[in-house]
Every structure is written in structure tokens, then in C-alpha cells.
Amino acid sequence: MHATLLQVQGLHKTYRVGKSCVPALQGVSFQARAGEIVALLGSNGAGKTTCVKCILGLVLPDSGQITVCGYDPIRQPRLALPYIGAVLEGSRNIYWQLSAWENLLFFAGIAGIPPAQARQRAGELLERLGLAHRAHELVGGFSRGMQQKVALAVALIHEPRVLLLDEPTLGLDLEAARDLRHALRDLADAGRAILLCTHQMELVEQLADRVLILHRGALAREGSPHELRAALGQRAFVITAAQPLAETLQHAICAQLPEATLNGRVITLHTHDTLRLYTLMHLLEAERVAIELVQTVMPSIEEVFLEVVRQP
Hints:
Blueprint: E1 4-17, E2 20-33, E3 37-42, H1 48-55, E4 63-68, H2 77-80, E5 84-87, H3 100-110, H4 115-128, H5 144-156, E6 162-166, H6 174-189, E7 193-197, H7 201-207, E8 210-215, E9 218-223, H8 225-232, E10 236-241, H9 247-256, E11 260-263, E12 266-270, H10 274-286, E13 291-297, H11 301-309
Parallel strand pairs: 3-7, 3-8, 5-6, 6-7
Antiparallel strand pairs: 1-2, 1-4, 8-9, 10-12, 10-13, 11-12
């Protein structure tokens, strides 16, 4: 079992808006282990940003406890924050008037890294992230993808154990997003814990080891992508017939199986009830229609997410 690097326990936070109190977090608890990418999902206003700001020590929770590598970032910031790296949406942790190289050396100096060591780390990060050939150009002239890579390099310059990433691939082209995904997987495999806040479900499907879904400030679902898909209890059977379906057979399928959709020779049965599949098989067999392929399709993370956020 890998070590737990980030622990959030019973986190509560309420904001005052005029005379009203708006709960942002309601008893949120989770952890992230070394080598693990944890996706934090939620609609706008679900509490993701508040949670991240509490971990960074930027927002004081009403109650609850946070530890990063054993230290409390709010009560022990000097001990906890060196273990945290963060990339906020919009590359807000870099200076566009500086070059990539200058950004890295500036933030290395803030972190107290000796100059010689800072130069070595900066060179290694720029090389690893494919930025070495533009190290001395102003970041303001970079593409969005390259700016995100610089932001990630800055977050890594002090070699943190925990990474907090807010929409790291938003606005990136396909190649830049792919490169960044590979970099994040490599960073996790090297023993870091990564908390990934995103609305991009494809990114979650590709990268996340565990998924947390916040809804109205509470943790509504938690588990691996496979566990969440299985728990939804919905799936589809996709049956490909070896020949076109007669019109009378199509009408019979639609009449007896309203959850079925037909597209040429392909029949998609939206159900978790295998008895409904047998009903379809009998209809096909009665018409002597050979079956070419039967597939089971599990729900996507997006479907799990939508099922959660549509709850009242």
C-alpha cells in the first residue's frame, strides 16, 4: 500500500453572502496516495475551488483537518507548503513578462533552493517538458499549451510530493494535451499524489485512478472509474446482426423492447437486465437472423457524473 500524502477529513466551510449563509463544503473527506491521480469532479459551485484553496491554506475551513505529508497547511504552512505544487486555471502561477528559465529560477529562489541546484532542476524540467529550445523566450509569447507546461514546471521546481491541478489541459490542442497527460502519468508513477480538478471527462477516463464527485458541497461518489461505472447499474448490450433486419422484425423489436435503438444491422439495448437481452435473442432467432457480434458497454464517467448532479 502506497503512503497517504494528502488527507482531508470532515472539511466544512460556509460563506456569508449578505445575510445568508451558503455552505460550500459539508463534511468532505478523502485522501490521495503516492503514485495516485485522483480526479475531483463537480458542477460549478459544488465546492471544488474552496476545497483546493483550503488545501493550499488560502481559505480557512470552519472545521475539519487537512494534512499534507503529515503537516497541516493552515496551522503549519512553513512545514506543509514545501510539499505542495499547484497549477491554477489560466497559468496564474507564472509571470508572462519573464522567460521560462527566469520563471523557474525566480520561484526556485522563493523556495530557498540554492542557485546551482535551481539551474540544474530548471534545465531538467525544461528538457522533460519539451521546453528547452524556447527556455529564454518570454512566456507571454507562448501558446496556451506551452504556458501550461511552464506553469507545471514552476509547480515542480521545489520537487513537491503533492500536485494540485485545476483544469490543466483546458484550451490545449490535441498534441499539447496528449503530452501533458503523459507528463502527469509519469509524475504520478514517480511517487507523487495528484489531485486533478477538471470538467473534461475524457481526461478523467484516461488518467484517474480514483474519482471524487462533489455535489452541493458534499462528497456524493468516490471510487475507481470502474467501480463508479459498475455501481451506476446501467449498461448497454450492442448486438450486430449478420444481415439486414426485416421491417416486420424492426417493428417487433421496438414494440417489445422500447429501450432498444436500431441503426442498420446494429441493435443497442439500454438495460442492465439480461432477461431483456434474451427476449431480443429470441426475436432474432425466430426470424433466423444470425448474430455476428454481442458486446457489453458500461456507462461512461460522464454518465455517472450526470446521474449524480441531476439529483435534487
